[in-house]
TrEMBL record:
It comes from the Bacteria. It comes from Edaphobacter modestus. This is Uncharacterized protein.
Amino acid sequence: MKIIRRTDGLLILGVLAALIIGCEYFPESSFTLASESRLPRWNTPPPGLTRGDVSLTMSYFSMPWGGSARFRLQDKNKEIIEKKNGRVRCGGAFQLKNPPQGFPPGYPAYEAITVDGITEIIEHRKMEPIFL
């Protein structure tokens, strides 16, 4: 009887560990930086490439200990140039008290993300896979 209880406990512990670890591999959502937006200060294209030669993808991850964001800088051939990991600073997106007219409810929404000690504000203007 003790062996069965112990096995059940280990099984539950294993399932919980797998769920927590799985949070690191499956993004909550992913977005591409709008072509008219500048790159965040922590991403710099290598010499010979300009902003127009690269794209930036951001993925949000939800962890029990807080949110994180991963950034992938790619060239036009989809080759990854740089990967950066950041921390979502606030508990959730924040919004303006009096948003401009023409935005859907809940937008624009902003996230403060810190990468390599540099904090940038990420803007989401509507529910779409684009960020500014």
